[in-house]
Amino acid sequence: MKTTKQFFTAIVLALLLFSSTTILAQDAPERPAFVTVTTNHWNMDKENFKMSEWKAAEKEYLEKVTMKNEFILSSAFYLHNMTADNTEFLTVQTFASWEDIGKFGARSAELEKAAWPDEAKRKAFLKNLNSYYSNEHSDEIYAPISGAKLMTEKPTKDMILYLRKSHFAFPEDGSNEEFNNLRMEGNAGIVQKNEYVKAYYPNVHAWGSDKTEFIEAFYLDSVSDLDKMFERNGELMNETYPDNEASKAKGKAWGKYFTGVHGDYLYTFIHDLSK
Fold this sequence. Notes:
This protein has eight helices and eight strands, in the order ααβαββααββαββααβ. The chain has helices spanning 2-13, 20-24, 51-64, 98-115, 119-130, 176-191, 225-240, 245-255; strands at residues 34-41, 74-82, 88-95, 138-144, 159-168, 199-207, 213-220, 258-269.
């Protein structure tokens, strides 16, 4: 398994863009321009904390505000499954433009007033909703890149999100042409053909703390499909890259674009809290 994962790492990392500006122009029109990721934390001091009540409150907000906000293309919650911090969860939203990121907050405020016209009731609802969260959070903005495997239909059940954070190295002898040729070959031969990967979304840093970040989001039906995905990738890799000198040369070329450092995270996608 370790060898398979190492090979898979080289292939999947080849999806990263050496120049995101150049590649973004090649994206399909259905992809958003920006993805915002907020890492929130539960308020561990809240008394009588009930996930069912939290979910009911967020669902009400989703239906009355988020679903009606035309500036938000999509929105989703991802709860901790296997990460270093069991208090964290992610709120992910996508936008068609940078301008829409600046507009959605004011629009949500308008929709909140329309949903709860009584100011006292509105404040009480929002106070209760916010009481589930600590004051600690962080925000990042990413740019989607080409090579996605789009979800064919909206999920009707919770799914597993395998999130991989890698870092690229900006090699002086690198080029967009070389990188694109390598990534497209690996993407077509492995990611797109793996039946266990229900959807795949690669993203690069746009605004935030680390410009070297490359974020890959893999959607799976279950945790047990994670090993199956890696095993299938090993089979597909052998089909796409035979054991010869040409394949070894490609592996060496891929590797120069990355530091070799990465992190792995598992979250649970909550299907009925998504737009």
